[in-house]
């Protein structure tokens, strides 16, 4: 069911942008990576604690548009507690959802982040939604 | 309602408020038909063929050059080089003139409010030649005080400056700056992309050595632009691009080049675009710059007044609507410009958001997140559209979760 853009902001993006759960510095991250969208200035610093292949904690700091910040916060909701390989699989799924290539059943796995699926109709905002996920993919690939 | 709107097919149904005219304007039917007619009635490769269609295409292309020359007050049509756009025009100047005349220790003066198109070609020229960039810093309203202009000195070889900033809208005293440049033996390269569509420009009154502008910001098709340069400069400069239809003689080892301006127009030209530009100039002349200026000033005054009533909106640049050339740049506290533009898009209000290809200026004015929103008007916009814009803008902060 397509959501209109204002509805998407009201129902999901604003809450995670204005009252994020994970936007803060954290103690003792094992890995830190900066993700940037140069063309729009979205800029996040993603911090993860990875122990024995499990993402046990995570946070981010940064600035950017509401979609980039909210998407990073929702992502951390999902991936904290997961094995790296599972987080990587969901990152790939999120990327496919944003490109309009994931099935409705698959999208359900992404929980709240599924609300961003209509970004696929807004090419100018795709990179904003992907920033957090792209950064976590990069972290896992480098492990 | 505005009498001109009916000439613009894309605007005619009134569904959209188009306030991104500084990026590109819309085209009236007169321009669209001129381009269409060219392809339907006389299309052939100009300057080459020896048959009627090609002769007619050549005549129309060269007539367009005459129209441009008289529109900006050039001494002759030979001083008009057709390019793709302002960016290409400025690159032509920086390459061809820069490579010939710049050397180590020479100074290239640029202003902090330039578009990237008038910065990057000079950065590259500096790297190639050993010259260095000297920056003019603007006041909060976008103006350049005498103490900054005093940086134009004996080492200055070129001053590269926009007549009107694409972010702040403030017109600059080009004649005064040209006099300072000339007194120091330098040339002035003027980016006229945001001025030519909105005000009467006379390149000889300005005493500009180079003057660049784009067709698409003044009702003409995309892909046709102009570089004006004084003929004695063009004659001494080497070609920028080489190839077809810009030569006199070619041997296996060498070539001699055609006269100006053809020396600078290698390859098949955008003749239909030039024809469209001439039609745009005729349309604008019909509207008249007195009307354009007064109408834009009236709308800008209303726009700035309406925006002043909306809490948390910060405007950049001069407080005087007459100093904006229809360009109003702003931010809403706590809201990223891209979110603002996306929300307003759902109300069918089109504005620009981002760094406007002016990142040094974004840093200099300390725009939060290095980006701003920009509403830019043209003569076909209406008071009703300003009210629709303001109504949409007034709701944005609430839509982004603030205040309620």
What do these coordinates show?
The complex is a heterodimer of chains A (143) and B (404). By secondary structure, chain A is an alpha+beta fold. Chain A has one domain (5-142): Sufe protein. Chain: A (Alpha-Beta Complex). Helix content of chain A is 45%, strand content 19%. Chain A contains five helices and three strands, in the order αβββαααα. Chain A has helices spanning 5-18, 66-79, 84-98, 104-108, 126-142; strands at residues 31-37, 42-51, 54-63. In chain A, α2 packs parallel to α5 (126-142) and α3 packs antiparallel against α5. Chain B has two domains: 30-285, Type I PLP-dependent aspartate aminotransferase-like (Major domain) (Aspartate Aminotransferase, domain 2); 288-399, Aspartate Aminotransferase, domain 1 (Alpha-Beta Complex). Chain B is built from 13 helices and 15 strands. A seven-stranded mixed beta sheet of chain B has the order 2-8-7-6-5-3-4, sandwiched between helices. Chain B has a four-stranded antiparallel beta sheet with strand order 11-12-15-14, covered by helices on one side. A two-stranded parallel ribbon of chain B has the order 1-13. In chain B, α1 packs antiparallel against α9 (271-287), α2 (52-72) packs across α9 and α3 (86-101) packs parallel to α4. Chain B is globular and about 75 Å long. The two termini of chain B are 35 Å apart.
SSE layout and pairing:
The complex is a heterodimer of chains A (143) and B (404).
Chain A (H helix, E strand, L loop, with lengths): L4 H14 L12 E7 L4 E10 L2 E10 L2 H14 L4 H15 L5 H5 L17 H17 L1
Helix pairs in contact in A: 1-2, 2-5, 3-5
Chain B lengths: L16 E2 L10 H13 L10 H21 L7 E4 L2 H16 L5 E5 L8 H10 L2 E5 L9 H4 L6 E7 L11 H10 L3 E5 L11 H4 L3 E5 L10 E5 L1 H6 L10 E4 L4 E3 L13 H17 L1 H20 L4 E3 L11 E6 L4 H10 L2 E2 L1 E3 L4 H6 L7 E5 L6 H17 L5
Parallel strand pairs in B: 1-13, 3-4, 3-5, 5-6, 6-7
Antiparallel strand pairs in B: 2-8, 7-8, 9-10, 11-12, 12-15, 14-15
Helix pairs in contact in B: 1-9, 2-9, 3-4, 10-13
């Amino acid at each position: 069911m397509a959501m209109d853009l204002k509805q998407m902001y009201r129902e999901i993006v604003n809450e995670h942008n204005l009252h994020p759960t994970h936007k803060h510095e954290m103690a003792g991250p094992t890995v830190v990576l900066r993700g940037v969208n140069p063309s729009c200035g979205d800029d996040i610093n993603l911090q993860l604690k990875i122990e024995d292949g499990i993402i046990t904690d995570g946070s981010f700091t940064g600035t950017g548009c509401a979609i980039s910040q909210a998407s990073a916060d929702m992502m951390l909701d999902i991936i904290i507690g997961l094995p790296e390989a599972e987080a990587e699989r969901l990152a790939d799924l999120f990327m496919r959802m944003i490109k309009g290539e994931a099935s409705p059943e698959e999208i359900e796995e992404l929980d709240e982040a599924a609300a961003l699926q209509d970004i696929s109709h807004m090419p100018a905002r795709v990179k904003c939604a992907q920033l957090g996920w792209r950064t976590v993919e990069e972290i896992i690939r480098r492990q | 309602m505005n009498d001109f709107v009916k000439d613009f097919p894309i605007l005619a149904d009134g569904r959209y408020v188009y306030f991104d005219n500084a990026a590109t304007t819309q085209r009236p039917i007169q321009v669209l038909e001129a381009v269409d007619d060219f392809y339907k009635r006389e299309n052939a490769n100009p300057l080459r063929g020896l048959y009627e269609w090609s002769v007619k295409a050549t005549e129309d292309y060269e007539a367009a050059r005459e129209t441009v020359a008289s529109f900006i007050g050039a001494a002759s049509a030979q001083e008009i080089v057709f390019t793709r756009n302002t960016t290409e025009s400025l690159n032509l100047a920086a390459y061809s003139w820069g490579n010939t005349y710049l050397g180590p220790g020479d100074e290239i003066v640029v202003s902090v409010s330039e578009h990237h198109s008038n910065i990057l070609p000079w950065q590259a020229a500096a790297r190639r030649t050993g010259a260095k960039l000297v920056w003019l810093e603007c006041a909060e309203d976008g103006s350049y005080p005498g103490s900054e202009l005093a940086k134009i000195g004996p080492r200055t070889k070129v001053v590269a400056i926009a007549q009107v900033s694409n972010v702040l809208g403030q017109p600059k005293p080009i004649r005064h700056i040209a006099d300072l440049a000339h007194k120091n033996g330098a040339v002035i390269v003027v980016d006229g992309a945001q001025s030519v569509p909105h005000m009467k420009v006379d390149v000889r009154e300005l005493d500009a050595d180079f003057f660049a502008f784009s067709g698409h910001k003044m009702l003409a098709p995309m892909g046709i632009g102009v570089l004006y340069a004084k003929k004695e400069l063009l004659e001494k400069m080497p070609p920028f691009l080489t190839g077809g239809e810009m030569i006199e003689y070619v041997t296996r080892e060498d070539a001699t080049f055609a006269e100006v301006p053809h020396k600078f127009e290698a390859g098949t030209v955008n003749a239909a675009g030039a024809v469209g530009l001439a039609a745009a100039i005729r349309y604008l002349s019909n509207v008249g710059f007195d009307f354009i200026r007064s109408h834009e000033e009236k709308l800008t005054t209303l726009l700035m007044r309406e925006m002043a009533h909306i809490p948390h909106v910060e405007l950049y640049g001069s407080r005087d609507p007459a100093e904006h050339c229809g360009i109003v740049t702003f931010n809403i506290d706590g809201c990223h410009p891209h979110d603002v533009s996306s929300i307003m898009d759902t109300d069918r209000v089109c504005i620009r958001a981002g760094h406007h290809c002016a990142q040094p200026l974004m840093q200099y004015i300390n725009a939060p997140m290095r980006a701003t929103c920009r509403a830019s008007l043209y003569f076909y916009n209406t008071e009703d559209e300003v009210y629709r814009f303001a109504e949409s803008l007034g709701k944005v902060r609430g839509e982004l979760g603030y205040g309620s």
